[in-house]
Amino acid sequence: MTQLELFLDLGLALAIGLLIGVERGWKTREAEEGGRFAGLRTFGLIGLLGGVWGLIAREVDPLLLGFALLGFTGLMGLGYYLGVQRDRDYGFTTEAAALVAFALGALVQLGYPAAAAAMAVVTVTLLSFKVVVHGWLRRLEPQELNATLQLLLISVVLLPILPDRGYGPWQALNPYIIWWMVVLIAAISLFGYFAVKIAGPDRGILFTSAFGGLAASTAVTLSLARMGRENAELQPLLAAGVLLASSTMFPRLLLVVAAVSPALLPTLLVPVGVMAVVGYAAALLLWRSAARLPARVRLSHPFELATAVKFGAVLALVMLLSVALREWYGDLGVYLLAAASGIADVDAITLSLAGMVPGTLLAGVAAYGIVIAALVNTTVKGLLVVFIAGGSMARRTALAVTAVVLSGMAATLATAPMAG
């Protein structure tokens, strides 16, 4: 390491301490001189101290850094004890920030300057959000906390340990992919719940539908249908959300085809584009016809894990059926395979068929298969709403989905013969 690099790293360690010190000093700016635990200068020195000890540990023995951190922690603990005895203030935030400043200063010298700088910014942001974070905690309800913990359990704990390989007949069942869909449905449901609670039903539902539809429109539909079953006053707006999420599937499908097999794009552009236009128009009409809702609507449950698990079981059955049709009928089963795959998802069959062109599959056959999957998937979304939500949401969604499907069929026939 050159002298310039050494000074730059020590300067960064000092800057990290100063950055944290600015936030801590601003919080206690009204305190008298000597009346606060640590301010701008002290935090700057703490960051520099961490950088110096990181340099010593790197050049002499890494164990020295552990002893230095242990000693500094003891010093912070003594200061905290004296502060509690004097002021009866049990807050430990400033002491914790000092420990972080020391550790980040050392991290710079250990070869991770970018990570240290980024974590310093995150630390200052978190410290400055005290009022906001405490406000969130006060408004957090027990079922919301339980739902968040359940989502973390099934995603962070369970998902990584599942094998990402096929099992069962034809190795068609992949536990990782199936459970990933369960996690996705649960995450979209929880996201939609908080979006509606924070932004209000109008903006929250539409925001969830638009962005959730980019990832998994079927999962969004399932979540909104369940919400509609429990909240009759939201049904007109939820119907618009279903159409918005469903329609977002069509441009996403075209983007996938353009990336994998651009030669298919001209063939699919008309039927898929027509369905997208009709779907977005129906979503707009449903949204404009929906009565304005109050700013706050009582939502009963963030999501139901059992519903997501049932959908995962259905997905597993569809995956098995799809592979079986391909094995039994070969290329003649492409359309049946597309229809079966479209029950749960269009991305997998789209990637599969587009990847076979040119080569083992005619462009027209692949295009027909993709359109069939899109039509079936759109129909399934309508049926989900009809059987789960019912009421005005079912009627509105059924009419709109019928319009989308019929327009797609008409556009497909108008551009025939695609298989040529």
Structure, explained:
This protein has 420 residues and is an all-alpha fold. The protein folds into 2 domains: 3-135, no CATH class; 143-414, no CATH class. The chain is 78% helix and 0% strand. It is built from 16 helices and no strands. The chain has helices spanning 3-27, 40-59, 63-87, 93-109, 113-128, 130-139, 142-158, 175-199, 201-230, 235-260, 265-289, 305-329, 334-342, 347-355, 363-388, 391-414. Helix 8 (175-199) packs across helix 9 (201-230) and helix 10 runs antiparallel to helix 11. The protein is elongated. The model has no long low-confidence stretch (mean pLDDT 79). One of its GO terms (cellular component) is plasma membrane. It is found in: Cell membrane. It is a multi-pass membrane protein.
Sum up the overall morphology in one term: elongated
Gyration radius, in Å: 28 Å
Number of strands: 0
Helical amount among residues, as a percent range?
over 70%
What is the total number of structural domains?
A: 2
Main location: membrane
Transmembrane segments: 6-26, 38-57, 63-83, 90-108, 114-133, 145-162, 177-196, 205-225, 237-260, 267-287, 307-325, 332-354, 366-390, 397-419
Family: Belongs to the MgtC/SapB family.
Pfam families: DUF4010, MgtC
Summarize the structure.
The protein is an all-alpha fold and 420 residues long.
Quick tags:
420 residues; mainly alpha
Write the layout of secondary structure elements.
Blueprint: H1 3-27, H2 40-59, H3 63-87, H4 93-109, H5 113-128, H6 130-139, H7 142-158, H8 175-199, H9 201-230, H10 235-260, H11 265-289, H12 305-329, H13 334-342, H14 347-355, H15 363-388, H16 391-414
Keywords: Cell membrane, Membrane, Transmembrane, Transmembrane helix
Subcellular location: Cell membrane
Membrane topology: Multi-pass membrane protein
